[in-house]
UniProtKB/TrEMBL annotation:
It is found in: Cell membrane; Membrane. Acts as a magnesium transporter. It comes from Texcoconibacillus texcoconensis. The keyword Metal-binding applies. PROSITE patterns: CBS (PS51371). It is a multi-pass membrane protein. Homodimer. This is Magnesium transporter MgtE. One of its GO terms (cellular component) is plasma membrane. The chain crosses the membrane at residues 290-308, 314-341, 362-384, 390-416, 437-454. The lineage of its organism: Bacteria, Bacillati, Bacillota, Bacilli, Bacillales. Residues 142-205, 206-264 form the CBS domain. Belongs to the SLC41A transporter family. It comes from the Bacteria. Keywords: CBS domain, Cell membrane, Magnesium, Membrane, Metal-binding, Transmembrane, Transmembrane helix, Transport.
Length: 455
């Protein structure tokens, strides 16, 4: 298999395109099929429609399925319109059941039914089963292409079984052992099989300490479990402990990317609108609720300033430090939000304790506040006003604002998590706005109390 580097990529791609455009089938196949499927996808995505039609003609459905199953869903929908019906069916047939289910789940019902009709009955039933599970659960992301063995089987017979079924399985590093009722009773690794006595039974070499997940378990919990145990795959069982599928590490990587994207969208108050392929209208519609809500919070901020209008009229210079107080409190709160959300996502809070994290963030806020206060007490008299009480007012305000902001940024996601909601919905803009309001209240309250010294 050829590995493309920055040095040879351009020339190699040119050779492939030249062979494709010249319709030199053998030359194109020799060059193209030597590449890793992901490199094939990079080249395929740059082709125009006429060039793609040649690729369909030059590659068998099995060869093209390696490309098709790793394309983005939007690209899959576009490509499927360019393929003949029989070619489409043959491509789908050579894909793994979970990849087919993911694709059909995004298709319109009539198109999905048409494709399912062309598949083998057993394959179609497996895919329908996967589609029946709720999105985001282990049942929805598991694959049906796995190898299970019986505990009474001989090791040598299992090796023969591997030779026959291995090419169609998604992974063979773990074999799952079932009894006569198809209940999961053990697991045996490929390594254990290879070094075991061929005449031994599987039950003599298998491990009965099997970690499994239920079909309805949340995919994020499955990802955390596989990360904890460093699994390459994990079995999926029903409520009656019947083995129905496995989840492999490549699917978990997709889940982690999906969950990270979702959390990023929540923190940025742009859930569902972080994908660059989303249209401007759809992106705006998904962002609008948060923006409108935060606009009303902004009106509260304006009202806070209005409540201290007399203070501002007497000491106009106080207005110059409003952005500083607001930005500093908002930024500090967002940092604490990120720490809290990450701790909840990774489960580290359970080990270290919520109280310890709140105390740690509060202590951090105090130290940041002290640092900023000292800097401002030095700078303000030099650049703004020689009245040291103004510098003290700004400095002490920033100290209290940052201390409070870190606590707010930490506690809000924890409370939301207790309510069984995604803590990431305590978005950055939301925390920022809340801390802006609190920071201004602290600032003007202190300034009002020190009015006689500031005049």
């Amino acid at each position: 298999m050829v590995k493309l580097t920055e040095q040879n990529r351009e020339q190699y791609e040119k050779s492939i395109l030249d062979a494709l455009n010249a319709e030199e089938i053998n030359a194109f196949r020799d060059l193209f099929l030597e590449l890793h499927p992901m490199d094939q996808i990079d080249i395929f995505n740059d082709l125009n429609k006429d060039q793609r039609q040649k690729v369909y003609a030059f590659l068998s459905p099995k060869e093209f399925s390696d490309i098709f199953e790793d394309l983005e869903v939007g690209d899959q929908k576009k490509i499927i319109q360019e393929l003949e019906q029989q070619y489409t069916t043959d491509v789908i047939t050579h894909m793994y059941a979970d990849d087919i289910a993911d694709f059909l789940g995004e298709m319109k019902d009539e198109n999905a039914e048409e494709i399912l009709k062309g598949l083998d009955q057993d394959d179609a039933e497996d895919i329908k089963e996967l589609l029946s599970y709720e999105e985001g659960t282990s049942g929805a992301i598991m694959t049906k292409e796995f190898i299970s063995v019986r505990s009474e089987n001989l090791v040598k017979d299992v090796i023969d079984q591997l030779r026959q079924e291995g090419p169609d399985a998604e992974t063979i590093y773990y074999l799952y052992v079932t009894n006569a009722k198809h209940e999961l009773v053990g697991v045996v690794s490929l390594r254990d099989l290879i070094i075991a006595n061929p005449e031994k039974q599987v039950e003599d070499v298998m491990s009965t300490r099997v970690v499994s997940v239920a079909t309805e378990e949340d995919q994020e919990d499955v990802a955390n479990l596989m990360k904890k145990y460093d699994f390459l795959a994990v079995p999926v069982v029903t409520a009656k402990n019947k083995l129905v599928g496995i989840i492999t590490v490549d699917d978990i990587l997709d889940v982690m990317e999906e969950e990270a994207t979702e959390d990023l969208g929540e923190i940025a108050a742009a859930r569902g609108a972080t994908d660059v392929n989303v249209s401007p209208i759809k992106a705006a519609s998904r962002r609008a609720p948060w923006i409108v809500l935060l606009m009303f919070f902004g009106m509260i901020t304006a009202n806070v300033i209005g409540q201290f209008e007399d203070t501002l009229e007497q000491i106009v210079l106080l207005a110059a430090f409003i952005p500083l107080i607001m930005d500093s409190a908002g930024n500090t709160g967002t940092q604490s939000l990120a720490v809290a959300v990450r701790g909840l996502a990774l489960g580290t809070l359970e080990k270290k304790g919520v109280g310890k994290m709140i105390l740690r963030e509060f202590s951090t806020g105090i130290m940041l506040g002290l640092l900023c206060a000292v800097v401002l007490m030095i700078i303000v008299p030099i650049f703004y006003d020689p009245n040291v009480w103004l510098a003290f007012t700004v400095g002490i305000s920033i100290f209290f604002s940052l201390s409070i902001a870190t606590v707010i940024g930490t506690i809000v996601p924890l409370v939301i998590n207790k309510l069984k909601l995604d803590p990431a919905i305590a978005s950055g803009p939301f925390i920022t706005t809340v801390n802006d309001i609190l920071g201004l209240m602290v600032y003007f309250s202190i300034a009002t109390a020190m009015m006689d010294l500031l005049l």
